[in-house]
Amino acid sequence: MGSYWFEKTYKTIQSFSKHPLFGYVMFGIVLLLALFLNSFELLSRSITTALILTTIYATVALGFSLLLGYGGLASLGTAGFVGLGTYLVGHFSGTQDYPFIVSLLIALGVAIVIGLIVGFISLRIEGLYLAIITLGLAEILKEIFKSFEAFTGGNNGLSFRDFDLLGIEMSPLATNVLIVVAFIAVIVMTHNIINSPTGRALLAMKNSTTAAQSMGIGLLKYRLLAFVLSTVYAVFGGLLYMLNQQFSQPTTWSLDFSLNILAAVIVGGAQSIAGIILGTFLIFGLDLAVLQKIPFFVANPNATWIVNGALIILVIMFYPGGLIRLFKNLHASFITQCKKLKKKWSVYRYGEERH
Amino acid sequence: MLLDLTILIGVMGLIYGLLNFFWIRKLERKDKAGRIVRNVMITLIILIGFVMAIREMTLHMFLQVVFLNLTGLCVLALATTGIVLIFRTSVTTNFAQGMMAAFGAYAGANLVLSMTEKTEIPIIYVLFIAMGVAAFVSFLIGLFVDVVIIRNGKNITPVGKQMITMGLVLMLLGLIPLVYGTLPISIQAFSYEPKIISFGENSWLLPGKSLILPGHNFYTLIISVVMIGALFLALKFTKWGLGVRATASNETVASMMGVNTRLITAMSWAIAGAFGGVAAFLYASEGGSLSASYMVPIQVDAFLSSVLGGFSTFGGPIVGAILINLFKSVASFFSSVWANVIVYTLVLVIVLFKPFGLFGKKLSKKV
């Protein structure tokens, strides 16, 4: 009887572990565990802060990868959109005292409108010019952050205090748990988008718009969809950033933030979720958790950018699929080596095979 | 003023829509006719906008504002020239142009600091020597980037190359504080004595008034006119210029015809770097100090002016640079806080009407 139950649970666990989303959910559970370890003071505070910030950046990077890895559209407006998210929640839930849900809905609405506008622009202006135009848009947003003082607090920045979700007062730990849960939800959503007809249509468009159009894929619909999704992710990331950091100022949302997100997506591998998470942890997590403790990098905080820049160049030149492909290649070569060794051993053990 | 401009653009858009609906779309060669009408409309919008602005702020004030912003204009033109030179030869938009230039300008500024402490040479010679050094350092960086990175990435897509230059931006942003320290370096202007241009009572332009031209702006104007003029003459009349134009139109065919495209591309990167270095030095010298990311706004403007003028010509982007600077001068007269937002939005609207720029041509794409 006992062994039967054991076998049944074992089989259910096995079927769970083969589910494509299993890895992502486990990743979320590990992140949550790290948070709880921190609340029992078993893990240092700086490491959990780094983890949470990195998950927020990974949310933004996932949206950017839908654009770059699947749509093939290079955009440099990320920083502006993330900054917009921080100011929207900071203004409506902080200064104006609306409930959090209301400001979330407002932020999503604004994100959809801006995504539509940029999408329409991208239909007229393509390729290399698009990066320049989106850079111009980000500059416009940054100027607005600086100058529209009633809304953003100008150069002094905007601070945000504790908020309540559906009547529950959120402590810092609860906020962090919320961020991790939101991150996992975003991953699941991205996974579903990538593996749906929409994702395949985007990929077809990336390789050749003409070929995609002649196969019946509407350029208008999918371009707009890619930009709307990417902008929604970025604004949502900004929202989470404001909940966690409780402060936002215009200088944070400049060109180097967009470039770092770009670095994360390129270095990890623009077309795989695991790759993007790996890239974000390499670019942001390593810097926040490890490098900021080494004396050289404490004295020169910008020196990590040299590493990031060099990583972008090296990966584009020698590993266009991203570092995640390195792991796959290593795995494959490991297996071939194992097979060779096994053959050698069998030759040694049983003698040469005769045909 | 802003309301007037919005009404002007709206009316022009309405007229274009009506014309298109009732006349152009029924013509046989509607593409060509539509293009001509769009060109005329945009020219009209720009001209009427300027006339309205000048009427509001008087011609004297307008010229004075332009004179005061002359350094910005020249620096923008120099930076834009560098970006276009690189775009034409290696088909990528070099996002690291501003950073390469800032690196060179830092070297020049450090030289000025050490030379004014140790020697008794007049400051104007020191500044000219330092400008040469800045140009040379940026020249070397440009050469290095092409020979080491871009040349080895022939098979990378244009967007991939663009991302490599973005990686370069990050590298240089980190490298500058490491090499030169994190504090901003101060640097003198070429001249602090303003030149006063007076008009006589009977002059046809501005009778009885005078304009002030800051001394530094005078030097900047001369240096940049000489440099850009020399570049255009070289493009037109030298063997290198012929090579550049051949490479720009088709790299593979050019190399088959015996053009040394590797040398041409490397020299274009280096010369673009030198132009950037001079621009960065002149700009820093006007502002009085330089820090790691001070060229970023200039670079954003330079890109927008290249897009506005059209990347597929050499002269268009310079006209774009002049236009953007004039827009900025006028807009900052009316509202200094929102000047950038107004100008960028205006450029965006124009580019939406003409995606390949004011002077650009549509490149046909093979499938």
Would you give an account of this structure?
The complex is a heterodimer of chains A (355) and B (367). Chain A is globular, with a radius of gyration of 23 Å. In chain A, a hairpin with a 2-residue loop joins β2 (164-165) and β3 (168-169). Chain A has a two-stranded antiparallel ribbon. In chain A, strands 2-3 form a two-stranded antiparallel ribbon. The model of chain A has no long low-confidence stretch (mean pLDDT 84). In chain A, α3 (45-70) packs parallel to α8 and α12 (255-268) crosses α15 (303-318). With 355 residues, chain A is mainly alpha-helical. Chain A has 16 helices and 4 strands. Chain A has a single domain (29-323), classed as Orthogonal Bundle (ABC transporter involved in vitamin B12 uptake, BtuC). Chain B is globular and about 70 Å long. The model of chain B has no long low-confidence stretch (mean pLDDT 85). Chain B has a domain at 65-191 and 212-336: ABC transporter involved in vitamin B12 uptake, BtuC (Orthogonal Bundle). Chain B has 14 helices and 4 strands. In chain B, the strands form 2 sheets. A two-stranded antiparallel ribbon of chain B has the order 1-4. By secondary structure, chain B is mainly alpha-helical. The interface between A and B is large, with 47 and 48 residues.
